[in-house]
Write a structure and sequence with these properties.
about 5% strand, 11 helices, about 325 residues, mainly alpha, three-stranded mixed beta sheet
């Protein structure tokens, strides 16, 4: 059939993570647990920071933004994935696919910027402690947070516009578990080179620039920490930096692998598994790594639990 006789695609069909029914049920349970932990962990962080005045500092202000981004990021893909694990046909409308890509790119790109901003905040706190309050003022923090969300919106707008200006006719089966540009471009009915180049350029700005800032920040932090007299202080700082870098490697590494490779017309099984790290795993890990291991957050949690038990006794 000629391309001129093909109608535009109205919906897409996902092949999902696997085809085996028993495996899908096991994955449903696993991903449901991970999603519930993600929602509860991030909501808990947001509530604790709002309620405890001791947590009204720049670091926790950025953590609220990160937790909100994680909630949106995970919710843009996981609930749909859970439904599709139990569904015979895994369908999404053309408009639904576009919406998913807009939200995913918005919060994902914003998170890239926020992680870089948070690493800079830690750099100033550790390497320039005497100037911290004058550098990280409330006005500066607000500007950095707004800048992160604006950069995310800009990246989403550019990548979505380039992705959906292409025609999609005839083929509508996506060998993936959600809509994202690299998977969708394989179905385009026209040459995708200019779109791939535009997305690649945006990825360099959104992924490589922040990860470079993060690595430089942590290198300076580690250099400063090694000069500390206290062995306990060094151990604590190395533990914190190490756990932060694990999240950075998981999030940025998997995103770079997905978005910075030449696009091919076929999708390998590993290509579907890699995005699980940045859409499912890191939104669950972030509250644990950045907050729930923290002494101040643990204190706020005990305070909240004590207030609740006191009100119940009354």
């Amino acid at each position: 059939m000629g391309e001129g006789n093909q109608t535009s695609v109205a919906e897409f069909i996902f092949l999902g993570l696997c085809q085996d029914l028993q495996t899908q049920i096991l994955l449903f349970v696993l991903f449901l647990i991970i999603y519930l932990l993600t929602v509860l962990g991030n909501l808990l962080i947001i509530i604790l920071i709002f309620m405890d005045s001791r947590l009204h500092t720049p670091m926790y202000f950025f953590l609220i933004n990160l937790s909100f981004a994680d909630l949106c990021f995970s919710t843009s893909t996981v609930p749909q994935l859970l439904v599709h694990f139990l569904a015979r046909r895994k369908i999404i409308s053309f408009f639904g696919c576009m919406t998913q890509i807009i939200v995913l790119l918005l919060v994902g790109s914003t998170e890239c910027a926020l992680l870089a901003v948070m690493s800079y905040d830690r750099y100033v706190a550790v390497c320039k402690p005497l100037h911290y309050s004058t550098i990280m003022t409330q006005h500066v923090c607000l500007q950095l947070a707004i800048g992160s969300w604006v950069s995310g919106a800009l990246a989403s707008l550019v990548d979505t516009a380039f992705t959906f200006q292409l025609p999609y006719r005839g083929q509508n089966i996506i060998n993936h578990f959600f809509c994202e540009p690299p998977a969708l471009l394989k179905l385009a009915s026209a040459d995708t080179y200019s779109t791939e180049m535009a997305i690649f350029a945006m990825v360099v700005v959104i992924l490589l620039a922040p990860v470079s800032l993060i690595l430089v920040s942590y290198w300076n932090i580690i250099s400063t920490v090694t000069q500390m007299q206290s062995g306990e202080g060094r151990l604590k700082a190395f533990s914190t930096c190490g756990s932060h870098l694990i999240v950075v490697i998981l999030f940025y590494g998997s995103a770079i692998f997905t978005y910075m490779r030449p696009n091919s017309k076929t999708t390998k099984e590993r290509d579907k598994m890699i995005p699980v790290f940045y859409t499912v795993v890191t939104p669950m890990l972030n509250p644990i790594i950045y907050s729930l291991r923290n002494k101040d957050v643990k204190g706020a949690l005990r305070k909240l639990a004590g207030r609740k038990s006191f009100s119940e006794r009354r």
